[in-house]
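User: Run a structure prediction on this.
Assistant: Running it now.
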Amino acid sequence: MEIRELECFLVLSEELHFGRAGERLYVSQSRVSQLLRSLETRLGARLVERTSRRVRLTAFGEAFAASLRPAYGALAGVVEEARAAARGRTRVGFQGAVYEQVTRAIAELRRDRPEHRVEIAEIPLGDPFGALRRGEVDAAVVLLPVREPDLTVGAVFSRRPLVLAVPAGHPFARRARLAAEDLARTALIPVEGPAPGYWRRFHCPAATPDGRAIPHEDGVRTLQEGLTLVGAGRGAMLLCDATAHHNRRGDVAFVPVGGLPESALGLVWAGNGTAALRALAAAVQGPGGGT
């Protein structure tokens, strides 16, 4: 059995879209189709029904996905445990900034496991899961939501309200608070990259809760690129208030936005994770449960 075929099927069962599955797997849409056909041939049954309008799992495919997901996670966990033990270190990726909650947890892990080294590395803002899947990091601190069948959210923490970054001279900058419907009156700057569609829509929605369209500007690859465009009057960005606090600048104003879900961070890894990662997750969440 080819592990790549199983991984491809699990991602496709989540996305139900060959193009988006290919983006997550860093392969072409035709390669996704090829891997699926190969797996179906091995099993002797159809897993997916595909028409010009929709993709859905067959009854057999739904049952197979439900059985496969925990087994695949357990296998990935065994591999990661062995890899971490062989290296004697854990590599943790992060988006944008390493928050105090994470640095305290890393210090605690170093104290309790002095033989185990923890390293950190920045990962692209628009590609929260790529470094994990390529084996470049063992875990990643990423912005939620995470709905990846091959990844585990080991800890959720830093739940924070959202703010809108606008040019300092923008009319919104004089407001004490904005409503979610106000977003239809400005253009948002999205983050480019292979992040799944649900993740991009959460952080740069295309419509307000009442269904009013929100215009978008050209995308950026980093937070600093986005804030530079905001300061130049090219659009606005939705950020959590903690990110805003760490990125204060004179040409950008940060205005609270009501009526939207809170931002949150997650510590994510493949499969069941290693003992060191589970200890890190417990330290990150702390006695308060990661709020």
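The first strand starts at residue 48 and ends at 50.
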